[in-house]
Amino acid sequence: MILDATGRPLLPSTGLRADVAADVKANMHQYLTDTVHDQLDHAEALAGGEFLFRDVFLKCLGPYFGNHRGQCDHLANVTFDILKRIWRDRYPDISPQRFLDTVHVPAPLSDKEFQEEVDNAWELEIAGSDDAMRRHYDGSARTRKGKDLGGKQVRPGTAE
User: Fold this and answer.
1) Among 21, 48, 74, 129, which is least packed, fewest CB within 10 Å?
2) pLDDT in tens, the chain (160 residues)
3) Whole-prediction pTM
4) Strands, E, within 1-136: which ranges?
């Protein structure tokens, strides 16, 4: 802040510091809420250890702290300790690493498998008259599922 001779600020305060503090507080609240409500996320946050947690934390929230890595590290350490304490209170019989060893996380689907799953998930209820059904759709089913959604196929050389 730049002051004039009387000690009044030449440039008014923009309130950015308060805005950044509010953003950090909101992000931390959301992160803690989301993490402790999902056991898998909670275990993943703790399983890598404090060093890895601090490294990821710095990448995500570091820009809020500018060149003050010490403050960000301190907040990361406090957050890790909170998560560790909550884990011990909720799941005293199992460590995060052991929990992750017992959980089966399915591999992501390939593009082809994903598209096939999406295609097969569709369901359409047709609310037309029987005459319209015969004219515009193959078959007479009122509910169609999966890839069987298309309109009537007109074969070349036939007129309808």
Assistant:
1) 129
2) 455 666 665 555 566 777 878 888 888 999 999 999 999 999 999 999 999 999 999 888 888 887 678 888 999 999 999 999 999 999 999 999 999 999 887 888 899 998 888 888 877 776 667 777 777 766 655 666 666 655 555 556 555 5
3) 0.59
4) 123-125
Position of tokens 């005293």?
Answer: 92
